[in-house]
């Protein structure tokens, strides 16, 4: 069984919209529209944030990012309502001081999504944090950790039911619940070879549940984003934009692979700065309207450059120069 901390460390949990509203642009001050649209999932800079959150956030803003997606409850301050020593209110103020918006956050709902449990306490507690930060989306980044290597179709059906219920509650607070994928959602289950992802998307209500499509993990699972957009139009309101190293393009889901432990599969992956890898983002961004895109975030679960800020700068510049408004 994969340990929670070890999986997060190695794979990440891990994108501003091509059609943002004038209100959003106004909230971003005098930034150019292209810059205001590009977001960063803060997990990418987790090591830097742990050392000096305020300086890290300032440097992210100075690169030109217009908004950030938070991640919560992964560290030593579990359940405290704090981010890297900052209270929710302090983090909100730091973001405002650096002209950064936060539309979305990743939150852990392990018990809420586990059959036989389904407690709403963690949902309510973390939705409260999202509201205090002024976010619009509460994103589930991963299934319950104790199920990662033994998920069944029934687990996905239960998660779909719970996401609908969570969506009702979040809607009452002005939020929308969402789900972010890795690779196990694209494994086939049962005699009809139905994927967990098909269950999640088809059995949730579009007005209550959004999907944050992680391009890296979808493509590495053999699922093409453009085909997903056509099959489930307008369901992918957020994207994680990350690239696949050209030396490691192979699909990691399928016959002979689905029964392997997650840690064995993760040995054969490698991330890359956006625009340097195997993903054709020009083609994907042309379908943003069909997808229903509202916000997208650069994320890189693992950075191999010594200077992590230079890594996110390279991704930012490629998107700004090649994808926004093209």
Indicate the topology:
Layout: H1 4-11, H2 22-27, H3 33-37, E1 38-41, H4 46-51, H5 53-63, E2 67-71, H6 88-97, E3 101-106, H7 121-133, E4 137-140, H8 153-172, E5 176-180, E6 188-189, E7 194-195, H9 196-202, E8 209-214, H10 215-220, H11 225-231, E9 238-241, E10 243-244, H12 262-266, E11 271-272, H13 281-285, H14 288-291, E12 295-298, H15 308-322
Helix pairs in contact: 8-9
Structure, explained:
The chain has an eight-stranded parallel barrel. Strands 6-7 form a two-stranded antiparallel ribbon. The protein has helices at residues 4-11, 22-27, 33-37, 46-51, 53-63, 88-97, 121-133, 153-172, 196-202, 215-220, 225-231, 262-266, 281-285, 288-291, 308-322; strands spanning 38-41, 67-71, 101-106, 137-140, 176-180, 188-189, 194-195, 209-214, 238-241, 243-244, 271-272, 295-298. It has a single domain (4-322), classed as TIM Barrel, CATH 3.20.20. Helices cover 39% and strands 14% of the residues. The termini are far apart. With 326 residues, it is of the alpha/beta class.
Give the CATH superfamily.
Divalent-metal-dependent TIM barrel enzymes
**Helix/strand/pairing category:** alpha/beta
Beta fraction: 5-15%
The CATH architecture category equals: Alpha-Beta Barrel
Shape: globular
Number of strands: 12
What can be said about the biggest beta sheet? 8 strands, parallel, barrel
Per the CATH scheme, the topology name is: TIM Barrel
Distance between the termini: 44 Å
The Rg value, from CA coordinates, equals 18 Å
Main β-sheet, spatial strand arrangement: 1-2-3-4-5-8-9-12
Q: What is the C-level CATH assignment?
A: Alpha Beta
SSE succession: HHHEHHEHEHEHEEEHEHHEEHEHHEH
Helix tally?
Answer: 15
The percent range for helix content is 25-40%
What quaternary form is this?
A: single chain
Provide the residue-averaged pLDDT: 89
Uncertain runs:
12-32
- Total separate domains: 1
């Amino acid at each position: 069984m994969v340990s929670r901390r070890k999986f997060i460390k190695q794979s990440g949990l891990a994108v501003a919209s091509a059609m943002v509203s004038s209100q959003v642009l106004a909230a971003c001050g005098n930034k150019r529209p292209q810059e205001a649209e590009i977001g960063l999932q803060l997990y990418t800079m987790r090591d830097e944030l742990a050392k000096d959150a305020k300086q890290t956030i300032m440097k992210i803003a100075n690169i030109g990012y217009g908004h950030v997606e938070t991640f919560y409850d992964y560290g030593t301050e579990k359940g405290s309502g704090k981010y890297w020593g900052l209270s929710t209110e302090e983090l909100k103020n730091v973001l405002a001081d650096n002209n950064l918006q936060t539309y979305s956050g990743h939150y852990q709902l392990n018990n809420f999504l586990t059959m036989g449990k389904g407690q709403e306490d963690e949902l309510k507690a973390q939705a409260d944090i999202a509201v205090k930060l002024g976010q619009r989306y509460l994103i589930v980044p991963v299934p319950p950790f104790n199920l990662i290597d033994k998920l069944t179709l029934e687990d996905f059906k239960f998660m779909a039911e719970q996401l609908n219920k969570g969506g009702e509650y979040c809607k009452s607070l002005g939020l929308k619940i969402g789900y972010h994928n890795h690779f196990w959602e694209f494994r086939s289950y049962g005699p009809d070879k139905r994927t967990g992802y098909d269950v999640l998307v088809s059995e949730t209500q579009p007005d209550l549940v959004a999907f944050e499509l992680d391009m890296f993990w979808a493509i590495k699972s053999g699922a093409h984003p453009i085909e997903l957009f056509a099959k489930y139009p307008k369901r992918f309101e957020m994207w994680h934009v990350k690239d696949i190293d050209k030396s490691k393009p192979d699909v990691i889901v399928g016959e002979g692979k689905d029964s392997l432990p997650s840690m064995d599969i993760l040995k054969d992956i490698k991330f890359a700065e956006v625009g340097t890898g195997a993903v054709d983002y020009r083609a994907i961004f042309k379908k943003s309207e069909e997808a229903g895109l509202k916000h997208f975030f650069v994320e890189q679960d693992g950075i191999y450059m010594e200077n992590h800020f230079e890594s996110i700068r390279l991704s930012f510049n490629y998107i700004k120069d090649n994808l926004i408004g093209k």
